[in-house]
Structures are given as C-alpha cells and as structure tokens.
Recover the amino acids of this structure.
C-alpha cells in the first residue's frame, strides 16, 4: 500500500518520507551527495520483494529553520522512487520523534527542547512527507591582500598613493593595492592631531629646585645590560638640569 500511494505523488527533489519500515536512510538522486563512498555496496530488499544494490553511501547536508543539519550515512539507491528517512536510524543518532495529533515533531539530538521540524500527516495516504532544502556547495577562493604590508614597508604611506605607483608603473614588482576604509593603528597613534598645552596658567621657577618636572618611560621592549626596563627623568625648571 505504501509504494502504491507513492506512484500517485509527483517527484520532488527535496521530499523525504519518514518511514519505519526501512533500516537505513536511502536516497534516489546522486546530485544531493557531496562525495560518495562507492565502496559501500549493500543489498536492499524493496517492499515488492525485489532486491537491488546500493551504489554508495554519504552524508547529506540540508538546511532547516535551526541551521544546517547532516543526514548521516545515506545509501544511494537509484531504483527508489522517493527518498526515505529511517525512523530507527534517526533514533539511533539521538533524535526524538514525537507523533501526536497528525503531526510528527523532530527534536534535536543535543537539545531535546529544540525543534528541528514539524511534519504534518498527509490525510489521503497517512504518510509523513518532509520537504528539505539542500545546502549549496560554494567554492571559496583564498587570496592574501598585501596592501597593509606595502603600507608599512613605505613608512605608512597612504594606500591611494601606493595605488598610483602601481598604475603608473613607477616601481617594479609592486602588486595592485586595494584602497579600504580600515584604520591603521600606527597611523592613528602617530598622525592624530593633538591640541596644544594651555599656557595661560603656566609659570616659571625663579630659583633652583623650586619646580621639578618628572616623567617615567617604559617598560622597554629590550631590557638593558642590568635588566632594567624603565628610566625616569627629573628636570629642574630653573636651570634645566636633567
């Protein structure tokens, strides 16, 4: 009865039937597999008694409302007319399936309160059909941007001027420089504008030791021979002796 009702349903690329009668997940289309382990050859007995052989096994990546999920160890069986999700295999992986009121709730294997999907029962044939979206494979290209490296090599020269050097062939082996809006920390610290010190309230000493300026510098990256990393200055305001 199950396979008889399948024939009346149009094929859907992302349609999976929740089925307790199969011992393993099985898919009919090899385009949903990322990489197939063709060494896995398993004999599969269909409901009509025919025995077919699987063409391989792989994991299938699908998109759900809770993010990307993996359907593990799916057998490729081109003879099938529909994709089958084994309820027993899902339970072995820790998933929880709750059937009630004509709805099957699939709960996450890590957080039992996190609901991955709800599958409504098809009243015409009492089957549970789950429509899934497959995750798209995207080829990413990794490329190193040397713009900041050449910016530092030229003593923090601005990227616009470096770009002109490349365009006018004014320097050999200079790569194409990309302009961006990122802030160089060294430029920010070394080139930022600073307001002058107020001189209205300043006064000068009229005798020795009347006013002493002091400042401490450190820690230094390289210690001295005596393993010191700081030095402190004392400047007499009157004599300027340091």
């Amino acid at each position: 009865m199950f396979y008889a009702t399948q024939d009346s349903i149009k094929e859907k690329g992302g349609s999976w039937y929740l089925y307790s009668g199969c011992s393993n997940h099985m898919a009919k289309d090899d385009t949903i597999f990322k990489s197939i382990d063709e060494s896995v050859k398993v004999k599969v007995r269909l409901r009509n008694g025919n025995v077919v052989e699987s063409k391989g096994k792989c994991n299938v990546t699908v998109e759900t409302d809770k993010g990307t999920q993996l359907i593990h160890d799916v057998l490729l069986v081109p003879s099938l007319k529909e994709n089958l999700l084994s309820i027993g295999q899902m339970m072995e992986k820790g998933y929880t399936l709750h059937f009630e009121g004509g709805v099957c709730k699939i709960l996450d294997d890590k957080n039992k309160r996190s609901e991955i999907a709800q599958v409504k029962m098809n009243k015409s044939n009492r089957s549970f059909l789950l429509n899934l979206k497959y995750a798209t494979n995207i080829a990413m290209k990794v490329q190193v941007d040397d713009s900041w490296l050449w910016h530092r090599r030229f003593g923090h020269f601005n990227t616009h001027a470096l770009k002109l050097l490349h365009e006018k062939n004014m320097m050999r082996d200079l790569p194409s420089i990309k302009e961006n809006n990122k802030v160089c920390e060294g430029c920010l610290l070394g080139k930022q504008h600073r307001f002058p010190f107020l001189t209205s309230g300043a006064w000068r000493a009229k005798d020795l030791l009347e006013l002493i300026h002091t400042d401490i510098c450190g820690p230094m990256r390289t210690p001295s021979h005596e393993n010191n990393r700081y030095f402190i200055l004392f400047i007499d305001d009157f004599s300027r002796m340091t």
